[in-house]
Amino acid sequence: MSEITSTRIGQTQVIRFNRPEKMNAITRDMYAGLTSALNDAAGDFGVRTVVITSEGDHFTAGNDIKDFMANPPTEESSDVARFLASLLEFPKPLIAAVKGNAVGVGTTMLLHCDIVIATPNTSFSMPFTSLGLVPEAGSTKLFPELVGYQRAARIFMTGDPFTADEAKEMGLVETITSDPEKVAMEIAEQIGQQPPQAIINTKALMKAGKHDAVAAVMKAEFQIFALALQSEEAADAFMKFMSKKSK
Ligand code: COA
């Protein structure tokens, strides 16, 4: 079975990370799968809302470190850059149902979702600097704007995780529940009953004020991220993770 599945349930497209044995760490192929699932959903009039969720106990452990070492994404045409662009441009409501670990892009992608539902035990983290990298997905703009500069600086610069309660208080999570997928599907169904063009226009208006600035920040982040990926700091951090895993 594919490591990204995309299934239509009524008017909702459910996109699912499906690599639970590796904590849904995201490979190049999975980024490509996410991009085509999002683009298909954007172009399909029958799809009113997308729910993004995961198989297993975790949302995602973020970028697959082994794959990053083998295939560092340095071009703007890379699968990861294309995924982030499709996320920024996605025109319909995007609801995330998260649980367990939401690491790296597993947290930064939530900044682009319209509604995030999480379990009480979800742990959010963005340990980019610990890996010798920089935050991505426009998060160096979106996260400080959401939580305040100093709180964002502390989280980015320490790599410390934060809880679902903290995420809700920050405004990153809308609802905490033991069954986020069920709640996400209920909300998706309710939105699906609304006039679709009114929903698309509302999202476009809500995002318009920031769109161009976020696109510019994403571009800058990607350039530095691509360089950092080839740095000694990143190589050391990646080797440390890999050697821990092979013990
Ligand atoms: N890339 C590749 N493989 C990963 C991964 C990642 N980002 N995160 C987890 N995995 C794999 C592990 O290698 C392990 O596979 P194995 O059983 O074949 O060795 C499996 O997923 C389970 O992970 P494990 O580390 O054993 O679970 P844990 O509960 O001890 O730790 C984490 C969980 C999330 C703290 C730990 O996996 C981790 O730090 N992962 C890296 C997170 C990260 O830095 N992501 C990149 C952000 S840019």
Automatic annotation (TrEMBL):
Pfam families: ECH_1. It is found in: Peroxisome. InterPro entries: ClpP/crotonase-like_dom_sf (IPR029045), ECH/Chromodomain_protein (IPR051053), Enoyl-CoA_hydra/iso (IPR001753). Keywords: Isomerase, Peroxisome. This is Enoyl-CoA hydratase. It comes from Candidatus Planktophila versatilis.
